[in-house]
Amino acid sequence: MIEIVSKVARQLGPSASRRVWCSSALGSFVAGPLGPEVARQGGTRREVVRLQDVSKTYAGPPEVIALRGVDLTIGAGEMVAIVGPSGSGKSTLLNIVGLLDRPTTGSVMLDGQDVSRLRDAQLSAARARRIGFVFQQFHLVDGQSARDNVANGLLYRGVRRAERRRRALDALERVGLAARADHRPSQLSGGERQRVAIARALVGEPAFVLADEPTGNLDTVTSAGIMRLLHELHAAGNTIVLITHDQSIAEQCPRRVTVRDGRIVGDERLDVDAARAAWHVHGVGPDVGEGRTEVAS
Ligand SMILES: Nc1ncnc2c1ncn2[C@@H]1O[C@H](COP(=O)(O)OP(=O)(O)OP(=O)(O)O)[C@@H](O)[C@H]1O
Ligand SMILES: [Mg+2]
Fold it and tell me: Which among 7, 86, 104, 285 is least surrounded, fewest beta carbons within 10 Å?
């Protein structure tokens, strides 16, 4: 567990306060100069991630080919759902996008930089600086307060303790949990724990947030609250990639990538109006799945 937590902690935390966070009447809301429009450059989105011909084979035995020739580009400010049957390679894909794992073949570009050949320490540094992770099992440290759990996201960023704790409180405020800052995870509901995990992912202002089944352990109502938060974060310009088994959650996302047998077999986007509806904090209605178009990946 400690290994997982320290691994998670290493992945978190960035520097600069590029975004301004504020509260809305709807609860915690994020606003800032890197909104969806700003993330675009000359009409096209700045590329955050590009996978080219990525394959992944687990040595075994038995040997498993988890990904086969995957090409995937994700632009700044996108919100992408990754769907597909169990065992199809979704987590493997997310782990490679998140620099938690390396492809067997193929290249991974992060913010225009080829990270395929980085040494382990450089990879960890890139991950800590640029990527925030959220997991189905939350991965919070039981013996620590919500605030310290979030502050852990800055542990490997050379930020002093007092500053880490100050930023942690800010991040908890963004997810509407400042009032629970001193609670331990065991004193929080499942949805609140996941909010703490999201605050930890955000505290370092990463280039993007990756979430593997973030609502997988939550009931429907709590899941809706977490999705509303993710939509708010997306509307404020954050890039979010999430894996989900829940079709209704996938339908809310402006882009949906389908993985089957280690291949991307579908890549659909909502049209602009439908995407606006989906981005809206209440935009989880039944009609947002309409207006999707297939795109070449
Ligand atoms: N560390 C590993 N070693 C060997 N095989 C692995 C490893 N991790 C995953 N696999 C295999 O790779 C394939 C893809 O696994 P992956 O976890 O990416 O699937 P998934 O789509 O995330 O599934 P789920 O929806 O059940 O989480 C599976 O057949 C799995 O058994
Ligand atoms: Mg998985």
Answer: 86
